[in-house]
Amino acid sequence: MRSTTFLLECLSRAGIHDVVTVEPATGGLAALAGIATRRGAPPVFVKAFADAPADDVFVAEAEGLVALRELGGVATPEAALGPADRTALERLCHRLPDLLPDRPACLTHGDLWTQNILATPDGQPALIDPAVSYTWAEVDLAHVWSTSPPPEARRFFEVYAELTALDGDWRARMPIVQLRQHLAVLAQFDDDWGAGDQVRATLAPFRTRA
Known about the structure:
This is Aminoglycoside phosphotransferase domain-containing protein. InterPro entries: Fructo-/Ketosamine-3-kinase, Kinase-like_dom_sf. It comes from Phytohabitans suffuscus. This protein is α+β, with helices and mostly antiparallel strands. The chain contains 7 helices and 7 strands. It folds into 2 domains: 2-48, no CATH class; 57-206, Aminoglycoside phosphotransferase (APH), C-terminal lobe (Aminoglycoside 3'-phosphotransferase, Chain: A, domain 2), CATH 3.90.1200.10. Helix content is 44%, strand content 16%. A 3-stranded antiparallel sheet has the order 1-2-3, with helices on one face. Strands 4-7 form a two-stranded antiparallel sheet.
């Protein structure tokens, strides 16, 4: 019952108010999840953490990996981000309310990089491999912006900015919005696709206390 109530609250905060029931989904270890049935709309899958991890949980994990590595005999992954990187990341997180304007949540693709954007035989856009969620629209925009779009895509960004009345600072905040995705790549695939360099470049202005 607690998980159902919590997930209903999450959906409500995301602007989804037509939920009839939420059926809990089992099998996960950390997050609460469920399938929400809606009135007159397709069901949605919702997943969220009821309790945020402790601030030092990942630092402790990294220190533990170092200790195991120094003992020898156990293969352990290298920490992708050092102490200075993690401190800079914490500073950036504290400043997010000032760096990112308040926007309403909307339905997003969730993994809108260039390889997931195709075209039909008659030239219409076609999107594949979604990770759909209700979040900030610029999450999708930043994903396209940060994954080497072709020069022809410049017109797309110009029209998008015009139609959505983006402010003049939107380009400057794209690396910050995309930081979540780069961190996810580091966590899942190690330092593939230069994600580590991208993260460190984004964190560079936050290495010194403002």
